[in-house]
Structures are given as structure tokens and as C-alpha cells.
Amino acid sequence: MPKLARWYIQTALLYLALGTLLGAVILWNKGLPIAGAWRTLAAHIALVTWGWLLLLTLGVAYWILPCWGQERRRVWLAGAAYISLNVALWLVALAPWLRAAWPNAAGGALQAVACLAFALHAWPRVRKSAYGV
Ligand code: HEM
Fold it and tell me: Where are the domains of the chain?
């Protein structure tokens, strides 16, 4: 498995653990209140959707889509998507503490850039493999 795919998938697993922990905190808070628990809802949602589900999907796609022999082309686009998605995730997750509109706006814009970058990387790889399947 290539290094970038490992980064994607290991980060996704970390975010699953962190997102589930925050989900448990919010759930606990419904029975026994914890100060500030609801403020973590944005982080919970970002961690389990963009962080867990999307990073896992993109990591597996980066690994498994057909290559050119051993070569993956335009790897920098998949790397840029990884960095942008991580920066975006933390901007959105921390937005409730930053008390400003720009982190959500910047996070959304970065998420769009990341999705476009990954799509540009992956599009030419959606084809028959070298083995004809
Ligand atoms: C892949 C797994 C998960 C996904 C995609 C997910 C997604 C979401 C989303 C989208 C919301 C917002 C719902 C809304 O605003 O109406 C939410 C809220 C919540 N999640 Fe999760 N979640 C996941 C796992 C978990 C886990 C494991 C827990 C608990 C241990 C949890 C606990 C909660 C709680 C307590 C809320 C707040 C519900 C409310 O508004 O009353 N989530 N989750």
C-alpha cells in the first residue's frame, strides 16, 4: 500500500476514534450535563463525515484504482486534497470556539478545492487496468 494511502486511512481511523468519543460525550450530556458538550457537535459531525467516511474512501480509492504499471500520476493532487481536507476539518471543528464566520467559509472552500483536486487525480485512473480488467 502506498504511503499516501496509509496516511489517508490511518488519519481516518484516528478521526473515527475521536469523532466517536465526542459523539459519546454529547450522548452522555443528554443524561448528565457536561458544560460545553454541545459545542463539540460541529467537531463530531466533521470528524465522522469528512474525517472518517471521506478520508477512508479517498485513501482506498488512491490505493486501489488502476495505475500505469507501478506508477500513479499527478500524485501531488491527491496529496493537496489530503492536506486541504485536514485543514478544512479543523477549521470547521474549531469554528464554534473561534466565534467568527470565516472558519466555516474557509473550511467549506477548502473542502471544495480538495474534492476537485482528488477528482482530477482520480479521473484518468477510472479505466481498464494493465491486466485488461
Ligand atoms: C460514522 C459514524 C457517525 C456519523 C456519520 C454521525 C453523524 C452525525 C450527524 C450528521 C449528526 C448531526 C445530526 C443532526 O444535527 O440532526 C450527529 C449527531 C450526533 N451524534 Fe453522531 N455520527 C456518527 C457516530 C456517532 C456515535 C458513535 C455516537 C455516540 C457514541 C454519536 C452520537 C451523536 C449524538 C449524541 C449526536 C447529537 C444528536 C442530537 O442532535 O440530539 N454519533 N452525528
Answer: 3-125
